[in-house]
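**Sequence with structure:**
===
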Amino acid sequence: MIICAPDMNVEIASRFGVEPCILVTPGMRVASRWSMKILADIGLSGAKHGVDVAMYVAYVRSVKPTWAVVPDRFADFRATLTQWFRYSPSISRYVAPIFVAQVFYRYRYLDVVIDLLRLGLIERVALPLRAHHDVTCSARPRLCAERAERALRILCGAARHIHLLGPALRTLRSLRYVLKQCERHDSVVSIDTSAYRMAANNELKRRLGGRWMPRDSKEAAVMLETWLRQALL
């Protein structure tokens, strides 16, 4: 499994037996010392409020990530599909594009995704797992896990690459088994997270001197390790 996070490094990844990947968003600098895979994304805010696509494409061209999420529209499958056909040709000139399957838990939209995969119009699919049109996944982790599992059992093996966008900790725990099945069916599996930057428990908060947020990259790395440990990867 590939884990993408802003503070990921090779040492942390090796402790948990995962492949490291750096998560970047527009404006974030990419250090030349990074020798890991890189995922570029517009973030949940960008999906909700829109982004300057020309600037995003320029950022992708400059950073040269391994993959880039094609700008999507939160909770709007049709608009996201329109944007895919409009912007993926520009992004695919530089990196491998990822299609965000908004509202994937409605079968009529998941059927369209399967058709796109069969036609070779998409190869990489991302499932949004921070928020859906009707719930936030941190508040309803089991519901989001159930929705994702139903979709994954259909997408495993059909998609070359399956990515989970910002899954809540408890949601990810529930999906461990089906994600391993996806890998057995030769789908690359990756997730991204920045949720660990909020202390995952009171013990970690105490270690941070009563703070919920990290002051520097060292503290952020400790918080990422704690998050991965609680994810039981």
